[in-house]
Each structure stands twice: as C-alpha cells, then as structure tokens.
Design a protein that fits this description.
388 residues, 77% helix
C-alpha cells in the first residue's frame, strides 16, 4: 500500500544522508514551529524541489489538523519520501535528537544540583513569568483560529468550568467533540451546545494511576501526544494534569522551569516532556515519556498516512476535531490560572510578565520565543542582583 503521493520528481537519498540532513535541521530548530517549517520549506521545496509548494501546503494542512508537533511530522514525511519507512524514522529521530540530548542533560543538572540551588533560582526567576506570558499569547493565537463561532466559545468555557470543578479531560474532550458534531448536523438547534456544560459537570473525574512507573510515563506521554491539537502548547494541560495535579511528582514551579528550558532549546517545545519524565522516574522515565509523546508523530506518517488523509476529508470528523480543539483551549486557560501563583510572586515578576506579553504580541521574528525567555531571564537576574 502506498502511503505517500507520487513525488514530482524521483528523489531518493541514503539513510545515512537522510539522518545527517535532519540532524542538522534539528540542531538549527530554534524559534518554534513557524521558523522550523520555514527552514524545511526553504531547503527541500525552494532549493532542492522535492515537491511543489502547493503540495507542501496541502501536506502541512493535514499535519496541522493532526495532534503532534507538525514540524517533526513534516520531517518524518520527507524522510519517508526519500528513503521509505526507515528514512522517515531516521529523519524524525535526527530532528528530535539534538533537543532531546540537551533537555536530558539540563534535566540531569536540575535534579543533581537541586531546584533550589541559588543559580537555578536566579535563572528561573524572570523566565517563569515570561513563559506564562507565552502561554497567554498561545491561548489567544490558538483560540482565534479554533473558536470561530459562539458554540465553540461556549464549549471552551464549559470545558474550563468543568475542569476547574474537578472533571477529568478524558471525559471533557470527547463530550466537547460530540457536542459540536451534533451542532454541525443540526445547526438550527443550540441545545446540544447548551447541554454541554451541565453534562460535563455530571461526569465523574477520571482516576489516574499516580505511581510514576516507566509504563505510566509511556502512557502519559502517548496520551499527551495523541491529544496535542494546534501546537505544542496544547500538550501543557495534559502533562501538567498528570505530573502536578494527579501524579504529584512535580510542583507547578518545577513544571514552569521545564517549559522555560524547552522554550530556549533547538527543538519542538514538546521536548519539555523529557524534563517531566526525568523528574518523575529518572533517566529511563525521561526516555519513556519522550518516546510516548513523539510516537504518534511517527505513526501517523509511517503507518497510516493514507487513512489519516481520508479521515481529514470527512466533514463529520472535522466537526468533532473542532469541538475537541475548543475544549483544549479551555483546558489551557485553566492551566494558566493554576500556574499564575508560581510565576507571579512579586511586583518585578508582574512587570516582567507584562513586558513579555507585549513582546509576544508585537515581536514576529523567528527567534521571538527564545529572545523573550532569554531577555526575561537576564532582567530577572539583574533584579535579583540589585535587590540582594
């Protein structure tokens, strides 16, 4: 069974060359998915013409709807075109490997020297409010594309309220998808959307195994990877729920530290899952969590690309996915509320948050995320130096 469309021209590469090419991409992958995808497009489409620009746009549209980091999924796709399934695997591995190695090393340092080590406290003092500002900006960016009508907005609000009252996301998200699917079938009737809130409140919280075993870490990562709609920021509420709310092996402050580290590395932001896994179950926990979070991104292309494209063409599936995405927006809002008290601890951190939020809205450069987090860290260091 063919899993990718016929290429515009026959482009094949050795597995070693594929791995080396995408390892280089991964080493230069600063600036978030927009910058990463632009880098891939420039070399493989504009310069080497592996596929046409129109074909690239169509493939990107598919991966933007699917869960998982789309830049990584695009690498797997191109690797598969050039070298079959092994080529796809090696391309994806090469792209994620630099970020994984760096995050693994930083996680080791964080655990070895202790979260309360003075140099770590100073380093993260200004970074945490900047990360919170980036999350708030992501809520607006994702929400502006996802909440396109009043019913999706209502579903997002209902999901947020339900989650604040203790209902698990494994209950809320299917309800969100089903509610909007019903509304799209019967657009003149709003009762399904209105019923979503009381229905979600009647549902019982889903119990999760709090023991951070390797199998649990793999499961948490896999679930996060399968529910990451609209970019890496949408994975935040799921991993925060498992690690902080249910598992209890991390605090919100530590979770923010992991996000800050992920924001300055050359990798998809989702690489912060390595940090979460390390704190839960050590080096093997970091590996298990990372495998779980990235496994869907590999599988969608290597195993089921054709089936996924047919699913995306199904309008009923569109409505369900739109409802789920709206629900995820509500969950991110709740997560941001929860970590606020750990990020904004005094007047200087509040000022850093406001400044970072302004920059996040106005700074459109590829290096914006890295620049904002790094600049906030420097400002926080200066504030600490002056006040000491």
């Amino acid at each position: 069974m063919s899993t990718v469309p016929a290429p515009t021209r026959d482009h094949r590469e050795s597995h070693a060359r594929i791995f080396a090419r995408f390892l280089r991409f991964g080493s230069l992958a600063w600036g978030g998915p927009v910058a990463q995808i632009a880098m891939i497009r420039q070399e493989l489409v504009d310069e080497e013409q592996w596929i046409t620009s129109a074909h690239f746009n169509r493939v990107l549209a598919v991966y933007q709807v699917l869960p998982g980091p789309e830049a990584h999924e695009m690498c797997v796709y191109f690797g598969m075109r050039a070298g079959g399934r092994w080529g796809g695997f090696l391309a994806g591995l090469g792209f994620m490997l630099p970020g994984f190695v760096l995050m693994f090393a930083l996680s080791w340092a964080y655990v070895t020297f202790g979260a309360n080590a003075p140099w770590l406290v100073i380093a993260f003092y200004g970074c945490k409010p900047a990360v919170l500002a980036l999350i708030v900006r992501a809520i607006h960016r994702i929400g502006s594309h996802a909440l396109t009508d009043r019913w999706l907005l209502l579903i997002a609000i209902g999901t947020a309220i339900g989650n604040l009252l203790g209902v698990g996301f494994l209950v809320l998200l299917p309800l969100a998808g089903l509610a909007y699917a019903v509304l799209k079938r019967r657009p003149t009737s709003g009762h399904a959307g209105l019923a979503f809130l009381p229905l979600s409140l009647m549902a019982q919280p889903v119990a999760i195994d709090a023991s951070p075993t390797l199998l649990a870490m793999l499961g948490y990562g896999l679930r996060g990877g399968l529910l990451t709609f609209g970019g890496a920021y949408t994975a935040i509420p799921f991993l925060q729920h498992d690690a902080v709310v249910r598992g209890g092996w991390m605090t919100n402050a530590q979770f923010l530290d992991g996000l800050a580290l992920g924001g300055v590395l050359p990798a998809p932001l989702i690489i912060f899952s390595t940090f979460v896994g390390y704190l839960g179950a050590g080096p093997l926990g970091a590996l298990a969590m990372t495998v779980g979070i990235f496994l869907p991104a590999f599988a969608f292309t290597l195993v089921a690309h054709d089936q996924v494209e047919r699913l995306i063409a199904n309008t009923a599936a569109h409505a369900f996915l739109d409802g789920v995405t709206a629900g995820v927006v509500g969950l991110i809002v709740v997560t941001a509320i929860g970590i606020w008290r750990d990020a904004i601890v005094d007047v200087p951190t509040a000022v850093i948050f406001v400044g970072a939020l302004v920059l996040a809205w106005r700074w459109k450069a590829r290096a914006a995320v890295v620049g904002i987090v790094a600049a906030a860290g420097v400002v926080g260091w200066l504030v600490t130096l002056v006040s000491s």
